[in-house]
Model the fold of this input.
Amino acid sequence: MYDIVLALHSWSRWLVIIFGLIAVYRAFVGWQNRRPYLGADNGMGAAFVGSMHLQLLLGLILYFGLSPVAKAATQSMGAAMKNPELRFWGVEHIVTMVLAVIFAQVGRSISKKAINPVSKHKKAFIWFTVALLLVLLMIPWGIWNPERPLFRL
Done:
């Protein structure tokens, strides 16, 4: 079960990145060109936030139930804080990703409630950009955090 959920979590990150890039691009272009807020803009924001929620669900299943790394980190937080890899998985990754989901959800809610279409785009751009940057920062690329395969099978 662990391998299946880990593979799903690994592959679905690409949906988050793709939907996030498109949502940020559409919001930026709509804001800068003063375009109306279309159903496609709303739909792409929904796809981005929905994929973020899926990632969070899979991540929480791993963190609280299946991952031996998360289990090792949470068994002794004091020791985990002294180990960069355990600290990353036990604290940094999960906290930052939860914040990213919150930023994406808040951005979608705030942008939907805005009356002016330009304001909708601007709010979506700001909140979605912050969320996407947090996600990109905490993906284990191996640059400043532990390296993991980009595609798990």
